[in-house]
Amino acid sequence: MLQSIPTIDICTLADDIKQDEILISRFAPYLDAHKNLFFPHRHSFYHLVFFTDGGGSHTIDFESFDVKPGQIYFMVPGQVHSWEFEGFVDGYIINFSSSFIQSFLLRSGYFDNFNFLNGNPKDEVVDLPAEQLPEIISLFEKIVAEVEKPAVLGSDMVKLLMLQMFILINRCQGKGDNFGKQGYNQTLIRNFQKLIEQHYVDVKLPKDYAELLYITPNHLNAVCKDVLGLSAGEVIRNRTLLEAKRLLTNPRLNISEIAFNLNFSDNSYFTKFFKKIEGITPEEFRKKTLNNKS
């Protein structure tokens, strides 16, 4: 698929081009060094920002959030985001690859249990309780210290500190009791969503995903409605719609190119698909989004 939105790699942001697994920094100097990152862009890595000062807004996949101290947000690879800050902004930032901590764990699906790493913007922005802030800030300071003063097994220490922080944040969300205890339906939905992420351009029908999951289409549909409150077809269409919105943020791509990249037979069919779900045409969505950004 044509990449219409800039995709940022860790090595692009790092001083050392060989640094491709993790980048850790205080946020103010990071922001000063990368002033061009206010425009919509994707990451090829996980992106974590914790705010200690500042205000403004940031947008993740067309969901807008107010920036405030004590807030932490996460992003998964492929999501589109932008920010508009007001005044001085500071905090901490950690960019890390999917393999950075996974390589440290025996359970390959361990991070699937953290809601803030599931790709849903509403779960990715966490307002931390005031009583938790000193402990979270202390962990960030220890992580920064490991980077500023490298020591033996420093990379492993960073992984341990990050894991400790993730567990604390998970507790703040009140999600700890059932961690790692997903039932059959939740596991099935997670596998369904992973398949959609891989195949949404070419595979459009629930029956084809049901076949990949070795279940019947009716069973897949029933589980989707039970867990997500949506039909299996709606889940697939929503992922296609999200990618359409992402592509529409680039004014250099015309509607026909976007329809082609999303495997629609023609521009008219794509427009009808988009308007039926979103309520406006792709052109109207683009105009509205770009006007808001400007």
Automatic annotation (TrEMBL):
Pfam families: AraC_binding, HTH_18
Keyword DNA-binding found: yes
SMART domains: HTH_ARAC
GO molecular function annotation: DNA-binding transcription factor activity; sequence-specific DNA binding
Entries under InterPro entries matching the protein: AraC-bd (IPR003313), Homeodomain-like_sf (IPR009057), HTH-like (IPR037923), HTH_AraC (IPR018060), RmlC-like_jellyroll (IPR014710), Tscrpt_reg_AraC-type_HTH (IPR020449)
UniProt domain HTH araC/xylS-type: residue ranges: 190-288
Keywords: DNA-binding, Transcription, Transcription regulation
Protein name (Swiss-Prot/TrEMBL): AraC family transcriptional regulator
